[in-house]
Design a protein that fits this description.
Blueprint (H helix, E strand, L loop, with lengths): L6 H36 L4 H15 L3 H14 L6 H27 L2 H8 L5 H31 L11 H12 L2 H30 L9
């Protein structure tokens, strides 16, 4: 990839962007499933389960994602388990996303008006049925805007996967720049591609929020 910045370099950046999208989807699906379990544990009536989930959230939110990446790629390898860059990055982001989405969804579940919880208790339903049929549908409505908005953070944080050698958009930009030594068009293109990926999600989140008439302020460290 010699010479100045050209269509071949742009094609390589777009391939990196495709891997960014793939990594984002992997971490969102995996982290979403685990995060849902964390959210339910956080609002559970079983006190030890609540403590365990709270400790998990505090531990992950208190650990930089970059450190998680290093632990998954280098630390696990020292224990005798070899992970590919994609597996290490995907697992790190899945753990990261599970803690944050779990806390976001916990806040949304607790945002369901107390009167709805009390009304559900008056129905001839089990605890599981009350949660499934009454509380979660309302919490899902509240959770949609912040969940879509958080996907922007996942897209941007996927750039840290470059530290373990995974060639996503940021790493692709580094490789192109190392070959032509012309950072302005390279990283300007990278920034534009990130904007194209992130802005529709931000716009969609705001649109859903206005349409549903909900707003949840969740503290994310």
């Amino acid at each position: 990839m010699g010479g100045g910045f050209n269509a071949n370099h742009l094609e390589f950046l777009l391939l990196g962007a495709a891997w960014t999208i793939a990594l984002t989807l992997i971490s969102f699906v995996g982290g979403g499933l685990a995060g849902f379990a964390v959210a339910l544990a956080r609002v559970s009536s079983i006190e030890p389960l609540r403590w365990l989930a709270a400790a998990y959230v505090m531990l992950i939110q208190g650990t930089p994602l970059l450190v998680l990446m290093f632990l998954m790629y280098f630390g696990v390898a020292m224990a005798g388990v070899e992970l590919s860059p994609l597996a290490a990055a995907g697992l790190s982001l899945t753990i990261y996303v599970s803690a944050y989405l779990g806390e976001i969804w916990r806040g949304c579940i607790e945002s369901v008006p107390r009167t709805q919880w009390e009304a559900a208790e008056c129905l001839p339903l089990t605890k599981l049925q009350r949660m499934q049929l009454v509380i979660l549908p309302q919490a899902f409505r509240i959770a949609t805007p912040p969940t879509v908005g958080f996907m922007v953070q996942i897209v941007k944080n996927s750039s840290l996967a470059s530290v373990v050698g995974f060639v996503e958009l940021t790493r692709a930009g580094q490789l192109v720049n190392n070959s032509i030594f012309d950072p302005l068009p390279v990283f300007l293109s990278v920034a534009v591609i990130y904007f194209i990926l992130c802005y529709p999600l931000s716009w969609w989140s705001r649109r859903i929020e206005r349409k549903l008439g909900v707003h949840v302020r969740v503290q994310v460290q």
